[in-house]
Design brief:
The complex is a heterodimer. Helix content of chain A is 17%, strand content 26%. In chain A, the strands form four sheets. An eight-stranded mixed beta sheet of chain A has the order 20-13-14-17-16-19-12-21. By secondary structure, chain A is α+β, with helices and mostly antiparallel strands. By secondary structure, chain B is α+β, with helices and mostly antiparallel strands. In chain B, the strands form two sheets. Chain B has a seven-stranded mixed β-barrel with strand order 5-10-8-9-7-6-11, surrounded by four helices. A four-stranded antiparallel beta sheet of chain B has the order 1-2-4-3, with helices on one face. In chain B, α4 crosses α5. The chains are: A alpha+beta, B alpha+beta. At the A-B interface, β15, β18 and α5 of A face β1, β2, β3 and β4 of B. Chain B: InterPro entries: CT_C_D, Cyclophilin-like_dom_sf, PxpB.
Chain lengths: 323, 300
């Protein structure tokens, strides 16, 4: 069991997400940065589906009531155990009564805490992920607060085998904000003028303070729409379309772009003009407020190659941890 | 009795689009019509029946549909090829589905949505009117009462569920000339009461939970469309009541009935009035008013 002493800014329990319910409006939820989530689990010997604590901008403070092994990955939140600094991206042994304390993120936006055995909250519709809007999953369907007690599952390996495992240094991401985020243009991008379609993929976008698990609202140049007589049922604004399903990662443009993330609304009536490819959604999820974002347009084969490359890299990372 | 028919619409060629590497989005029409919606439902039901490996989500929407796929299992282009073959096989006219007609009582001009409406006047096209007054005038009705009569005068089909869990988009089951249409708020509200009944574009909606929203607000229903604890009798199988293809009959109620139903919901004893129906697009298109009358009779 873990006792939360400080819940941080917006910490929730997440796993790989909830699928199969999109048609009733249920978004997938799940870890915003699958690489950091999966590596955290691998470090403590968990399956990648195990639930971790996802922390946004600020880490939590927690006390353990038994000896265990933990790992903190993702955004650098300077973890300490009983005041002594411990490494990120490595398995750390803690003893019963130890206090794990983390601070504000110095690079990246989301950190993950994995515990050997995983956070053992009940599954709702096939997932332990928290979806706060309707209050399901995770711990009571909400962000963590001081005083919460989180149950922990049974570790798969002996704790002695886990400690000192680490991700090779060269595989630790740097979360630099010059890296581009790749997108496939489309869905209803016919609503954009050629200039705006071009601007989307060349201009600098800035992450606004409205950037959370639902969506990343970006600021940048004005978006222009092709003039038309609005079709029946769409509504009169040039950005309106007849309400449609929104893919996770899709970019809607009420005016400025909003990239939909894991807790996204599943549909609506704004023009969606492209979709961030799956391996780059985690890259975007590590951008902080005021960081810049550049989009690069790719085709579907390039996107599938990027997906394979990311999967292979993740496999290499987890193999390196086990060896 | 109306003799109006609904003429099926000629749809353009569908547009197949990639939503990143892991979604396929298909726009059947830019404009809303029953033909486009029924086709979206027919195709997604066929996709479900074929049980294609690698389809993770299967999501019909108003005039389009979307699939989430696992590209490690199936290439998006193979999905699109399969969808094209389904598209040529599907005929909306000789297609029908098992559906439900559901009674949704509504207290129009209720105090809660009225307060919200007044709080957000500065975000509205017509700050001096209520949403109902604005909508009535825009649609050529002399007063709010006759606009509400039109709103409840024919059932609404659930053409899409989403935005948040359990929110139904509903398209009124009348010929195009009789359909109501209103803009969404100029700027979305930051607050909408749960169970508010709204209208935007050509769609009525029921907001399952309190939150943001941009539709014109007309009233509030005492019944729930989302029950995350699945404690109410009609929610044993799913935390969400409406499904795409269901039919909603809005019914005007007074405050006393609202309070009675609310009390029954809070006791956990309320059971929806609803009936199973087999919906036939062909029969509906042929004589919508008669068909609707027969549907609604199932509730009484």
């Amino acid at each position: 069991m873990i006792e939360i002493r400080n819940g941080g800014v917006a910490s929730t329990i997440q796993d790989t997400g909830r699928s199969g319910h999109y048609h009733i409006g249920m978004p997938p939820s799940g870890a915003m940065d699958p690489y950091a989530h999966t590596v955290a689990n691998a470090l403590v010997g968990n399956k990648k589906e195990a639930a971790t604590v996802e922390m946004t901008y600020q880490g939590i403070t927690a006390v353990f009531n038994e000896d265990t092994v933990v790992a903190v990955t993702g955004a650098d939140v300077s973890p300490t155990v009983d005041g002594d600094p411990v490494g990120m991206w490595e398995a750390v042994a803690v003893e019963a009564g130890d206090e794990l304390d983390m601070g504000f993120a110095t690079s990246g936006a989301r950190a993950y805490l994995a515990v050997a055995g995983g956070i053992d909250v009940p599954e709702i519709m096939g997932s332990q992920s928290t979806y706060t809007l309707v209050g399901i999953g995770g711990h009571e369907g909400r962000t963590l607060e001081s005083g919460d007690e989180l149950p922990v599952g049974t570790p798969s390996d002996g704790l002695a085998d886990l400690k000192d495992r680490a991700l090779p240094h060269e595989m630790v991401p740097e979360y630099a904000d010059e890296e581009t985020v790749r997108i496939i243009l489309g869905l209803t991008d016919y609503r954009l003028t050629d200039e705006s379609r071009e601007a989307l993929c060349t201009e600098e976008w800035t992450v606004t303070p409205e950037a959370d698990r639902v969506g990343y609202r970006l600021d940048g140049p004005d978006i222009e729409f092709v003039e038309r007589e609005q079709p029946f049922g769409a509504g009169p604004d040039p950005s309106n379309v007849v309400d449609l399903g929104y893919p996770v990662g899709s970019i809607q443009v009420p005016q400025k772009p909003i990239v939909l993330m894991q807790d996204a609304v599943t549909g609506g009536g704004y023009a969606t003009v492209g979709t961030v490819i799956s391996p780059d959604r985690g890259v975007l999820a590590q951008r902080q407020t005021h960081d810049s974002v550049y989009f690069e347009s790719v085709d579907v084969e390039e996107a599938l190659d990027a997906r394979d490359t990311a999967a292979t890299y993740l496999e290499e990372a987890t193999d390196a941890i086990r060896d | 009795m109306s003799v109006d028919q609904i003429t099926p619409v000629e749809l353009p060629e569908p547009r197949y689009e990639y939503g990143g590497d892991d979604h396929v989005f298909v726009e059947l029409a830019e404009e809303m019509s029953f033909t486009a919606n029924f086709k979206a439902m027919a195709i997604t039901q066929q996709v479900a029946e074929r049980d294609i490996d690698g389809i993770v989500e299967n999501c019909p929407s108003n005039a389009s549909y979307m699939l989430r796929i696992d590209p490690d299992v199936i290439h998006p282009d193979d999905v699109i090829a399969e969808l094209k073959s389904i598209e040529t096989d599907v005929s909306v006219e000789d297609y029908s589905w098992e559906s439900r007609i559901i009674d949704v009582p509504v207290l129009f001009e209720d105090p809660w949505t009225h307060e919200t409406v007044m709080n957000f006047r500065e975000r509205h096209q017509d700050p001096d009117a209520t949403d109902l007054e604005y909508s009535a005038e825009l649609n050529g009705y002399n007063d709010v009462d006759s606009f509400i009569d039109a709103f409840v005068g024919a059932p609404h089909m659930v053409t899409m569920v989403g935005f948040v869990p359990g929110l139904p988009w509903c398209f009124q089951m009348v010929p195009r000339e009789q359909q109501l249409e209103v803009p969404k708020y100029v700027e979305p509200r930051t607050q909408t009461p749960s169970r508010a009944v709204g209208f935007g574009g050509a769609f009525s909606v029921i907001y399952p939970v309190e939150g943001a929203g941009g539709y014109q607000l007309y009233g509030r229903t005492p019944v729930e469309v989302l029950d995350v604890d699945q404690a109410l009798p009609n929610f044993e199988e799913s935390m969400v009541l409406p499904n795409p293809g269901d039919i909603i009959r809005y019914r005007r109620i007074n405050r006393d009935e609202y309070d009675e139903i609310r009390a029954a919901i809070e006791d956990g004893t309320y059971e929806f009035e609803m009936a199973d129906v087999t919906f036939s697009p062909e029969e509906f298109f042929e004589a919508p008013a008669d068909y609707n009358t027969r549907l609604v009779e199932g509730l009484e």
